[in-house]
């Protein structure tokens, strides 16, 4: 994980990537125009918030959670319940959505005190399956497989926001999340997380409270997932469990793996790219499993350097101007 | 570790893809443009065109296309300001998943060309879509999905219609026959979701009205294939009959596993599932004696026969499946509303409330103020020798009321 | 009383299916240290191959044979094409997400099955001869159930014998216990691992055909279900070679059936995964001692 470039250069590059990505998020919907463009922009913003949350849990502290999308569901169901059954409006319900997700996230993260690596991944996979099963079966809270419909749209100053308004809201929330996660990364807390990820024994020896930090990383990541879920609930006005399954978790994992641990600018870029890819390639109900599977293998090949062989062959065979030099 | 500087090409790719996605949106069922310019009326057709309920989606498409072909071949819309306009469809697959339906509904409303939605084969999907349509006063005709909750969810705008009879008619007709057959200890096994729970609750309600309490009421999910525990629990309660509210494949498995457990009681299907080749093929001899209902087939009027002949000519199928029937009627209703003077999505619903088609081939078609069909009919059959044999007819006389009618009415 | 007996029969039939699922997962896990998340989807696709073959040829036995062959082929090919190249590189690059390659393969295999069966489920005529036979009271177990009872005993015994008394089996155990030593002694490690995946695929294909024949249906979601339930069973059994898988599968079958029968059918899966988490947390060393699941 060592980066020999100077921190200043690295930060400037990261800021550049983030700015380019955000410019894309801001401009593309306006360029496409119409409700479709703004809808896509909102979807991209949700994906960005979700991925930033996973950066905290996995990227910063190195804990393999396979329950990120189910945690997003906590936020979505909380907003759906509060707005449809209890007459809340979106803004106040955002707070309990984030808090509830954080609380459940902390519980899901508790095993991180005991197990690591693949085993933690499997424990969280089990926890995710439990959440999914509860979403389907605790009908009083989730309306089961039918889902909760009729979630009212977001209002501001007494007017109902249209798709452009919701897009603006999502964009602001994504920016706030980015600023927050960036501040966290560069804070003493963030450095403790990184120390924990890179060498737990050394971190503990330096007096880092590893146990508390582990759970906190899950809670913060889940809180952001909860905010993403809250936005998701008002985008279509409908919430059901299929939107928070393993497929969605895998998509987030891929985004963060492509971006690199702790690399926030790239995370924004990768999340936007993934939204565009999903929009282009997805049938109904998300990407075809085969496409997700191929993505996984490509990302694995990239991360392991197996790609170098393929890329080298392409570079040798393809005309020079066609291959971007990266 | 070596980093690949993906960000810039990635952004470029993202932009290109999104732009491409935008361009690719006009997959072109019509030459686009407003209805008044191109002479077409665009209807959004929705249903499970892929996934586990694909057969239902295919039926919906067949029925809708038959209706459109009839209107268009006769020279388009018959009367009114849009006289001569042709009907075209834009298809929206929901794969039977409510979240997809909700997302589709948003896209459909955003598309100014589209004047109405016809479709959805699954009640969960219609229940998710209807409030979104209602919020923007968009005309929504639920074909096949028939939970009364679809109407509840969209009570204010009066732009939501359910073409088939609603759940109470389905549940009450078969429950009444169960009681008439003298059963007093029914067990219930139902799928979860709007459909299974909705029908099962209505069956329980009807039984209670007649002083009968089900001895067991178990549930399963769409993904289940092992029903032995539920059936064992039901068998343990010594029922004298079994009410199954499931889907064609699950119902066949349930019958096989009931046989395995030795649960030998008459089976009743209030969900309108068993008059269906998928079920009859999968269940084989086990289907014998099952009592179910369907809104078609019993009647032998000229209109019915003619509809069946036309469907046979168009699709090569001799039996018109229920989803096809109601999608057909939904499109006919929209065409009739335009012939009566509707100009577009803004006033279509008010004209739909006024239509009065004497016989679509299924029966008279007109809507009550709540958007439900007036006088929807269900015919009750018993599967005998591998085919349904009809023995009773019911007509829906109110949101939660049915009356028995003669079979040949 | 009859409910109790029925719950017991369900426990045993379900449990034996789970133990057959766990058997294949366990062999691969012991040999390569890999949690093969593609195991279930591979056996599901193999089951479809079996269905297609028996429908086309009209001979049930050939259908079973085809499923078994397909299971072996998918496992071996996936190892040679994907897992072996990945394993040849430092896994550190995945930062512990070592199960991702298998998940990728699982999703691709699933996609093939969806192409073959877009509706996601097909009726499956039993490939096993015989009629229903009375078990107790009114309970009449179908033929596939009796075959399942037999296979549940015979298959683990055969696998144990293969591992103990054949050249391939001895190589598999050598690679599992001492991979470095095995390589130094001239054991072709990659090929041996491929044969472990093939062995797992054979057991998997058979398990898939038994499952589909017993329930009269094959469906795409069976794949992931088999992976999850098989894995829980393997963990419960202590990730051993054979005995653990059988005992773990039976234990899971009993837990699920009794929760369904006496508590609620709705919370069966919650119980299953709560059990998984509890075992992974409370007995990480005890239960996992035999396996090579990385905990750090």
Silhouette of chain A:
globular
**Rounded mean pLDDT score of chain A:** 85
**Biggest beta-sheet profile of chain A:** 2 strands, antiparallel
How many strand segments of chain C? 4
Strand content of chain A: under 5%
Biggest sheet overview of chain C: 2 strands, antiparallel
What does this structure look like?
- The complex is a heterotrimer of chains A (326), B (409) and C (296).
- With 326 residues, chain A is an all-alpha fold.
- In chain A, 75% of the residues lie in helices and 2% in strands.
- In chain A, the strands form 2 sheets. Chain A has a two-stranded antiparallel ribbon with strand order 1-4.
- The relative contact order of chain A is 0.18.
- In chain B, strands 7-6-8-9-10-11-12-13 form an 8-stranded mixed beta sheet, with helices on both faces.
- In chain B, helix 4 runs parallel beside helix 5 and helix 7 (167-180) crosses helix 8.
- Helix content of chain C is 74%, strand content 4%.
- In chain C, the strands form 2 sheets. Chain C has a two-stranded antiparallel sheet.
- In chain C, strand 2 and strand 3 form a beta hairpin.
- In chain C, helix 1 (2-32) runs parallel beside helix 5, helix 1 (2-32) packs across helix 9 and helix 3 (60-88) runs antiparallel to helix 8 (189-215).
- Chains A and B meet through helix 1, helix 2, strand 4 and helix 12 of A and helix 1, helix 4 and helix 5 of B.
Question: Secondary structure elements and their pairing?
Answer:
The complex is a heterotrimer of chains A (326), B (409) and C (296).
Chain A: H1 7-32, H2 34-60, H3 68-85, H4 90-109, H5 117-137, H6 139-142, E1 148-149, E2 155-156, E3 159-160, H7 163-186, H8 188-198, H9 200-205, H10 210-236, E4 238-239, H11 246-259, H12 264-281, H13 289-304, H14 307-317
Antiparallel strand pairs in A: 1-4, 2-3
Helix pairs in contact in A: 1-2, 1-12, 2-7, 2-10, 2-11, 2-12, 3-4, 3-5, 3-10, 4-10, 7-8, 7-10, 8-10, 11-12, 11-13
Chain B: H1 7-23, H2 35-38, E1 40-47, H3 54-73, E2 86-93, H4 98-110, E3 114-119, H5 123-135, E4 140-142, H6 149-152, E5 160-162, H7 167-180, E6 186-191, H8 194-209, E7 216-220, H9 228-236, E8 241-245, H10 248-261, E9 267-269, H11 277-283, E10 291-294, H12 302-315, H13 322-339, H14 345-352, E11 377-384, E12 387-398, E13 401-405
Parallel strand pairs in B: 1-2, 1-3, 3-4, 4-5, 6-7, 6-8, 8-9, 9-10
Antiparallel strand pairs in B: 10-11, 11-12, 12-13
Helix pairs in contact in B: 3-13, 4-5, 7-8, 9-10, 10-11, 13-14
Chain C: H1 2-32, H2 39-57, H3 60-88, H4 100-116, E1 121-123, E2 133-136, E3 139-141, H5 143-165, H6 167-177, H7 179-184, H8 189-215, E4 217-219, H9 222-236, H10 243-263, H11 268-282, H12 284-288
Antiparallel strand pairs in C: 1-4, 2-3
Helix pairs in contact in C: 1-5, 1-8, 1-9, 1-10, 2-3, 2-4, 2-8, 2-9, 3-8, 5-6, 5-8, 6-8, 9-10, 9-11, 10-11
């Amino acid at each position: 994980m060592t980066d020999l470039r100077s921190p200043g250069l690295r930060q400037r590059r990261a800021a550049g990537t983030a700015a380019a990505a955000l410019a894309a998020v801001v401009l593309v919907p306006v360029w496409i125009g119409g409700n479709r463009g703004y809808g896509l922009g909102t979807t991209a913003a949700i994906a960005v918030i979700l991925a930033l949350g996973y950066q905290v849990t996995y990227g910063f502290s190195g804990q393999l959670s396979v329950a990120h999308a189910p945690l997003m569901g906590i936020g979505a169901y909380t907003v759906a319940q509060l707005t449809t059954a209890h007459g809340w409006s979106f803004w106040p319900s955002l707070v309990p959505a984030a808090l509830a997700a954080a609380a459940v996230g902390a519980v899901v993260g508790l095993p991180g005190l005991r197990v690591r690596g693949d085993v933690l991944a499997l424990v969280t996979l089990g926890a995710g399956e439990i959440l999914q099963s509860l979403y389907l079966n605790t009908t009083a809270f989730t309306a089961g497989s039918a889902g909760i419909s009729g979630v009212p749209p977001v209002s501001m100053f007494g007017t109902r926001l249209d798709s452009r308004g919701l897009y603006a809201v999502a964009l602001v929330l994504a920016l706030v999340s980015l600023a927050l996660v960036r501040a966290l990364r560069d804070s003493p807390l963030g450095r403790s997380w990184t120390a924990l990820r890179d060498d737990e024994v050394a971190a503990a020896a330096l007096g880092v409270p590893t146990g508390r930090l582990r759970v906190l990383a899950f809670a913060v990541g889940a809180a952001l997932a909860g905010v993403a879920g809250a936005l998701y609930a008002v985008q279509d006005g409908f919430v059901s469990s299929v939107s928070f399954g393993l497929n969605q978790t895998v998509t987030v994992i891929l985004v963060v793996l492509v971006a690199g641990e702790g690399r926030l600018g790239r995370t924004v870029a990768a999340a936007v790219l993934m939204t565009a890819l999903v929009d282009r390639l997805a049938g109904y109900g998300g990407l075809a499993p085969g496409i997700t599977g191929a993505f996984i293998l490509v990302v694995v090949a990239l991360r392991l350097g197996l790609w170098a062989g393929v890329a080298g062959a392409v570079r040798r065979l393809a005309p020079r101007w066609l291959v971007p030099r990266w | 570790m070596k980093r690949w500087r993906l960000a810039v090409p990635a952004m470029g790719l993202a932009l290109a893809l999104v732009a491409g996605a935008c361009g690719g949106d006009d997959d072109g069922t019509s030459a686009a443009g407003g209805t008044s310019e191109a002479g077409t009326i665009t209807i959004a057709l929705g249903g499970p065109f892929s996934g586990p309920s694909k057969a239902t989606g295919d039926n919906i498409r067949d029925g809708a296309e038959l209706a459109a072909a009839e209107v268009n071949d006769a020279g388009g819309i018959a009367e009114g300001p849009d006289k001569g306009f042709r009907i075209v469809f834009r298809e929206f697959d929901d794969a039977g998943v409510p979240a997809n339906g909700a997302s589709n509904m948003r896209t459909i409303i955003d598309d100014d060309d589209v004047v109405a939605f016809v479709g959805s084969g699954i009640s969960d999907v219609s229940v998710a879509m209807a409030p979104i349509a209602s919020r923007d006063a968009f005309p929504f005709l639920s074909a096949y999905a028939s939970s009364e909750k679809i109407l509840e969810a969209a009570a204010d705008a009066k732009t939501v219609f359910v073409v088939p009879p609603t759940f109470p008619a389905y549940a009450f007709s078969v429950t009444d026959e169960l009681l008439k057959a003298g059963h007093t200890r029914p067990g219930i096994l139902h799928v979860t979701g709007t459909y299974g729970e909705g029908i099962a609750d209505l069956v329980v309600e009807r039984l209670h009205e007649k002083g009968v309490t089900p001895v067991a009421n178990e549930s399963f999910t769409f993904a289940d294939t092992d029903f032995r525990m539920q059936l064992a629990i039901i068998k343990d309660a010594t029922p004298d009959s079994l009410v199954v509210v499931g889907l064609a494949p699950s119902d066949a498995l349930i019958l096989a596993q009931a046989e395995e457990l030795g649960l030998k009681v008459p089976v009743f299907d209030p969900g309108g599932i068993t008059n269906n080749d998928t079920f009859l093929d999968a269940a084989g001899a086990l289907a014998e004696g099952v009592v179910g209902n369907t809104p078609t087939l019993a009647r032998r009027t000229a209109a019915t026969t003619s509809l069946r002949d036309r469907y046979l000519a168009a699709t090569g199928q001799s039996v018109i499946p229920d989803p096809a029937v109601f999608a057909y009627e939904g499109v006919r209703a929209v065409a009739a509303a335009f012939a009566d003077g509707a100009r577009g999505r803004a006033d279509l619903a008010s004209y739909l409330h006024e239509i009065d088609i004497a016989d679509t081939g299924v029966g008279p078609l007109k809507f009550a103020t709540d958007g439900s069909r007036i006088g929807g009919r269900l015919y009750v059959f018993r599967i005998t020798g591998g085919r349904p044999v009809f023995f009773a007819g019911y007509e829906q006389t109110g949101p939660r009321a049915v009356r028995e009618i003669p079979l040949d009415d | 009383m009859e409910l109790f007996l029925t719950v017991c029969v369900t426990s045993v039939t379900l449990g034996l299916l789970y133990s057959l699922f766990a058997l294949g997962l366990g062999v691969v896990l012991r040999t390569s240290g890999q949690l093969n998340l593609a195991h279930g989807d591979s056996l599901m696709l193999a089951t479809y191959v079996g269905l297609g073959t028996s429908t086309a040829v009209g001979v049930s036995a050939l259908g079973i044979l085809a499923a078994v062959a397909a299971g072996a082929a998918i496992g071996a090919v996936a190892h040679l094409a994907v897992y072996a190249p990945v394993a040849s590189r430092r896994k550190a690059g995945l930062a512990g997400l070592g199960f991702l390659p298998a998940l990728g393969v699982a999703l691709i295999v699933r996609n093939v099955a969806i192409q073959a069966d877009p509706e996601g489920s097909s009726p499956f005529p039993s490939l096993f001869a015989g009629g229903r036979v009375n078990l107790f009271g009114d309970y009449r177990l179908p033929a596939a159930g009796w075959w399942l009872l037999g296979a549940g005993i015979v298959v683990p015994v055969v696998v144990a014998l293969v591992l103990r008394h054949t050249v391939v089996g001895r190589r598999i155990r050598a690679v599992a216990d001492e991979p470095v030593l095995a390589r130094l002694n001239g054991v072709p490690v990659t090929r041996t691992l491929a044969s472990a995946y093939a062995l797992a695929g054979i057991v998997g294909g058979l398990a898939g055909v038994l499952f589909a024949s017993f329930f009269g249906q094959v469906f795409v979601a069976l794949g992931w279900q088999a992976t999850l339930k098989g894995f829980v069973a393997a963990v419960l059994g202590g990730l051993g070679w054979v005995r653990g898988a059988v005992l773990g599968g039976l234990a899971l079958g009993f837990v699920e059936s009794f929760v369904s029968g006496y508590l609620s059918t709705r919370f069966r899966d919650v119980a299953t995964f709560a059990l998984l988490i509890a075992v992974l947390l409370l007995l990480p060393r005890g239960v996992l001692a035999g396996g090579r699941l990385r905990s750090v």
